[in-house]
Automatic annotation (TrEMBL):
This is CopG family transcriptional regulator. It comes from the Bacteria. The lineage of its organism: Bacteria, Pseudomonadati, Pseudomonadota, Alphaproteobacteria, Hyphomicrobiales.
């Protein structure tokens, strides 16, 4: 098949990239340019790109849904704990407030240490909730 000649003007940077790529591949510049133009004009290329983008968007949606679920569990857990704590903890008398603050600071430090150990081990309450609760577990098992 006879090919048609085409004269084009390229920016120096694009020409340098074309030249370097052609030399690296050991191919003539006209063959590299022809393949690039053919790929650009190919209808399959846009379909392929659209499919890749749709797949990525689906994955992002699943990740966001999982994050939203985890946030909901976290907020519900904190709200339930606060409600329980407020309803079950009696007010302290004035004379013992200093000792209570000291004990609270000590407990807080132990809590932060335990949290650090737990996070570094990779074990999370969300995983335990998912394992222990079948209806939550199925929602957590969303695959990428």
């Amino acid at each position: 098949m006879k090919k048609t000649q085409l004269s084009i003007y390229l920016d120096p940077e694009i020409f340098a990239s074309l030249d370097a790529y052609a030399k690296h591949q050991g191919k003539p510049k006209s063959l590299v340019a022809e393949a690039a133009i053919g790929s650009f004009l190919s209808p399959d290329d846009s379909d392929r790109r659209e499919a890749v983008i749709a797949k990525r968007l689906d994955r992002i949606v699943r990740v966001l849904e999982r994050l939203e679920r985890n946030d909901g569990i976290t907020l519900e857990t904190i709200a339930l704990f606060i409600r329980f704590w407020l309803t079950s903890t009696p007010a302290l008398p004035e004379q013992s407030s200093q000792a209570a603050r000291a004990k609270g600071a000590e407990r807080y430090d132990r809590f932060v240490e335990a949290l650090g150990r737990r996070l570094s081990s990779g074990s999370t309450v969300l995983n335990e909730v998912s394992i222990e609760s079948p209806e939550l577990g199925s929602a957590a098992q969303v695959k990428d």
